[in-house]
Amino acid sequence: MVTTLIISALGLLLGVSLGASYLIYIRVKQLQQEIERMRSQMEVTNDELDQIESSLKSMDIE
């Protein structure tokens, strides 16, 4: 009787742990997708960098 109770409790604990791990896995995948989306919005082309550089060079900083 006690052994069955312990096995049941450990089984339940294992199930809860697996469920939590799966939820964490899903959240990590969502965050990776969000990072990729943000990265694509933040890309700067060479032409844009050249334009920024030329703008900075044209400013008179003393």
Task: Write up what this structure looks like.
This protein is mostly helical and 62 residues long. It has a domain at 20-57. The protein contains two helices and no strands. It has helices at residues 2-42, 46-58.
Would you spell out the secondary-structure blueprint of this structure?
Elements lengths: L1 H41 L3 H13 L4
Keywords:
62 residues, mainly alpha, 2 helices
- Look at the structure and give the mean pLDDT: 89
Radius of gyration: 27 Å
- How much β-strand is present in the residues? under 5%
**Shape assignment:** rod-shaped
Low-confidence residue ranges:
none
| Sheet with most strands | none
**What is the strand tally?**
0
Annotation field: number of helices: 2
Secondary-structure content class: mainly alpha
Bin the helical content. over 70%
CA-CA gap between termini: 85 Å
What is the H/E order? HH
> What is the oligomeric state here?
single chain
Task: Give a short summary of the structure.
With about 60 residues, this protein is mainly α.
